[in-house]
C-alpha cells in the first residue's frame, strides 16, 4: 500500500511539471465584425463631377454654336440700324483695344489721318473701297498713319464678312484691292504730280486672313529705285498678333500720254 501511494505521488508530480498543451480553441469573430472587415469602403458619388463636365462642355458648345451663327449669318446691309451698331462697336475696339494704335499715337513721327480725306462723301460713293465695299460687312474701318521721315505708312483696317472668298477667310482679290490702294498712298506722296497708276503689283500670300478682325497694311517707299515719274513701293499685311500674312511690291508711274486727276496727300 505504501508503494502504491508512492507511485501515485510520482505520477502527480510528473503531471504537475509537464508544460501545458497549447490551446486549440480560437474564438470566432462575431458576424458583424467579419462583415465589416470584408465590405469595401463607400465611394464618393461621381454625379457632381459628371454634372460639372456637362455644364462646362455644354457652355462651350453653346458658345461655339453662337460664334458659328455669327460667322455664317448674312452680314448686315450698309446704312441699317444693325450696321450702324456694328460700326460703333468696331470703332470702339480701334480706340481702346489695339496696342498698335496706342504705339503709333505715342510715336511723334507718325501722323494719324482719316482715309480718303481729299474726297467728299459723294465722291466716296463712286469708289470701290468706300462705296460698294462700305459698311461693317466690307472695309468697315480704315485709319492711316503716315511717317514722312521714313517714307512709310500703316493702314489699320477692319475686314468684314462680306469680303470672304471661303467661309471666314478673306478673298485674295479683295485684299489685293486694299494693298494696291495703300501702296499707292506712299507712291503718290512721293510723286510731285500727286497722282499715278499701278504698272505692276506682286503679291505673295503667306497665311490666311480671317474676316471680322483688324489687320495692318504696311507700305514703304524704295527711295533708291524711285524717280519723279516712278515710285517703287514694298509692303506687307500683318494680323493683330504681328504674324506676316502677305508680302507685296508694286511700281506706280505717272503716264505721259494723258493727264490724271490729282488726288492729294490724304488719299
TrEMBL record:
<dbReference type="InterPro" id="IPR052061">
    <property type="entry name" value="PTE-AB_protein"/>
</dbReference>
<dbReference type="InterPro" id="IPR029069">
    <property type="entry name" value="HotDog_dom_sf"/>
</dbReference>
<dbReference type="Pfam" id="PF03061">
    <property type="entry name" value="4HBT"/>
</dbReference>
<feature type="domain" description="Thioesterase">
    <location>
        <begin position="169"/>
        <end position="223"/>
    </location>
</feature>
<protein>
    <recommendedName>
        <fullName>Thioesterase domain-containing protein</fullName>
    </recommendedName>
</protein>
<dbReference type="InterPro" id="IPR006683">
    <property type="entry name" value="Thioestr_dom"/>
</dbReference>
<feature type="region of interest" description="Disordered">
    <location>
        <begin position="17"/>
        <end position="43"/>
    </location>
</feature>
